[in-house]
Amino acid sequence: MTTKPVMSVVATKAALDAATALVNTGGTGSLFIRSGAQEATTLTADAGTLGATLPMSATAFPASTSGTSDGLITATANAITSDTNAAASITAAHFRIKNGAGTVIFQGNVGTSGADLNLNTTTITAGDTVSISSFKITLPCGDGVS
Length: 146
Fold this sequence. Notes:
By secondary structure, the protein is mainly beta. It has one domain (about 10-140). The protein has one helix and nine strands. It has one helix at about 10-20; strands spanning about 30-35, 50-55, 70-75, 90, 95-100, 105-110, 115-120, 125, 135-140. The strands form three sheets. A five-stranded mixed β-sheet has the order 2-1-5-6-7, with no helix packed on it. It has a two-stranded antiparallel ribbon with strand order 3-9. It is globular.
């Protein structure tokens, strides 16, 4: 028998809210945009070149949404401060969100569409301003409804 355990909407919301709350552990978290291949795990040391660092809000994420018919629970980040002086010229390929203590909480790929983090361009030039207008984290739940 194949197993496929699922979480309820209530459990998925609680899990996502707990994870997003970790972003501000040890101080305000930041989103780092890097070049190259994404690290194998969140425990792996940073890879690639750091192109931009964007501080998260003091409350990085509000409570997650109740869920949608596609079974996704979503947390949308509060405002993320722009990096007004990008550290290096890179082709953005992945991101990491670290809490104030430097622990990686989330990571994912970067692109211009269909990525975990979509930017208007993946070309970052040293000294540029890099901004993010919206960022969402989603988790699937087994109920498929809100």
